[in-house]
Every structure is written in C-alpha cells, then in structure tokens.
Amino acid sequence: MEQEIQLEHALANIQKLVDNIETVIRGKRTQIQFILTALLAKGHILMEDNPGTGKTVMAKTLAQSIAGSHNQSSVNFKRIQFTPDLLPMDLIGSHIFDDIKKEFIFKKGPLFCNVLLADEINRASPKVQSALLECMAETQITMGDITYQLENLFFTIATQNPIEMEGTYPLPAAQLDRFFIKIIFGYVDEATELDIYKDYLGIQNNLQHIQQVLSMDEILFLQQETEKVYIHEELITAVRNIIWGTRKHADIVLGASTRSGITFLKCLKAFALVNGRSFVTEDDIKAITLAVLDHRLIYRNKEAKQKALAGILDTELLRLSKLNIAK
C-alpha cells in the first residue's frame, strides 16, 4: 500500500513538472518527456537543431522549475556558451594565488552546478568537449591530485548545431556515448507557432516568473522510484537482441556497447514512469530505441543510417508481438 502511495506521488510530481514546463515550451510534449526521461535515468541529453527552436529556453525552464537546497531560490543552473577559443579550465576551474593566505586555491568553474546547459557544444574543440567526460560519467572532477565530487543532482543538457553547419566539430564517439538520449528538438506545428506569435509576451512573462513546482529532493526521489520500475525478462532479452543486432549488421561499422544496453534499460524504466506507468511495455522500446542508440552507432553511409537500426528494431518488435507478455 505504501509503495502504491509513493508511486502515485511520483507520477503526480512528474505531471506537475511537465505542466509547468509547458507554460513556456509549447507543442513539445514528446521532447519534454525525453528530457525528463534522461533526468530520471540519471543521465544527460543532447539536443540537435538549428538556432531559434527553443533549446536554451527549455533548459532554463527546467532548472527554474526545481527549487534548490541551502536556501537557494532554484537549483544551481549554469550556462556555458561553447566557442572555438574556449579552454578546459574555463569549464573545470583553475588555481589562483590568494594574496592573504599566500597559497594557490582552486576556484571552481561552471561545471560545479546542478543543471548545466552546454550551449552549441560542437563549436568548441574536441579537447574542450572532453573536459565534460569525467563529470558526466562519474559526477566528479579531478584537478591535479584532488578529486571533487559534484552534487547528487547533476544533469547536463547539451545543444549542438547540425554538423553540416560551418564552424562545428563533430563530437567524438566517447563523448556521444555519455549522452543517454539524443533528440532533434524540431520546429512546432503551424497552429502552435501561430499561438506562440500571438502570446509571445505572455510566454516571456511565464519564463520570468516560472513556478518552482518540485524540490531537488523530490527529483532525487523520482530517480530512486525509476529504479523500481518493473521490466519483463523478455523485454530485457529484446534489449540484448537489439544491441547485438547493431554489432552484426553489415551497414553498421561500430555497434552499441554493453554500457549502451545498460543505458537503454535505465531509459526504458524512466520513460515508463514519465508516461505514468510502473512497468515497461513494448511500445516503450519502440518509442525510445532511436533516441537512445542512434547517436552511438557509426554507419557505412547515410542511406544505412536511415534503415539499419529501424530494421533491427522492427525484427525484434515482430518477435515480441508473438509473445504474450504480461505486466
């Protein structure tokens, strides 16, 4: 009974967060669900699209919706604008000399936060991009001989411009693998865009006065509840089959790793909870496979990119459809 009450409380909190974000971000329910999926799975998300689609506003709205700790009005939110001249120390921090103490002290950089917006991440060099690796994978930063632990809640929302755009550096495979989910943010439909034009002043006002509907502790609680979501053994087998399928496919040069499979399972549980369920379904696999795996794979050509993973997924969904999988 207590577990059911906790689940109902968790689902209500998720809905409150979605509704609050939608006061600013219009017509993006699917994208919001993917972002919250990455958050509850204790991962990070990469959003790709042209400038002006609302990626930065999305990150700000999420951060301002969560109340911080230690008398902070909201969680510690930092935005880093990635540029070609950026250096790793601009992210991590550096040692500066203290005239009073007569010693070098470490001045923390913007990576020491709760919600990080890494804006246009692929405009910086690979050396700078790699500065994010340790903090995203292990929630810690090592500077010299000292390792600094980050906050229990550390969530990176990175945006990147399409790689065809001038002045961009493709993210290395190791960096891409740290992002649990990659989505195309996309433009809204015509009707929603017209509504935005009619009410852009109201939307701007909502962003400036966004309500804090959840606390940081409640987000951490939701992350714990995510781990309790039930996933049938056959669905775990399906994840294994899809991962192996990417390694065997003739049009995929680099398949998904075991870490990718574990990430897939975490995201399935989180996506189920975001959608109001305490169990994973076949539809969840269908909905998130491309978002979780596609950016981790290297294809032989563009034509293969359109078909290879989709074909592997269809084969596994066909197998699952012949089974009678109960909750």
Automatic annotation (TrEMBL):
ChlI/MoxR AAA lid domain segment(s): 246-306
Matches recorded under InterPro entries: ATPase_AAA-3 (IPR011703), CbbQ/NirQ/NorQ/GpvN (IPR050764), ChlI/MoxR_AAA_lid (IPR041628), P-loop_NTPase (IPR027417)
Gene3D superfamilies: Magnesium chelatase subunit I, C-Terminal domain, P-loop containing nucleotide triphosphate hydrolases
Domain ATPase AAA-3: 44-180
MF GO annotations: ATP binding; ATP hydrolysis activity
PANTHER family assigned: METHANOL DEHYDROGENASE REGULATOR, MOXR FAMILY PROTEIN
Name listed for the protein in its UniProt record: AAA domain-containing protein
Organism: Limnovirga soli
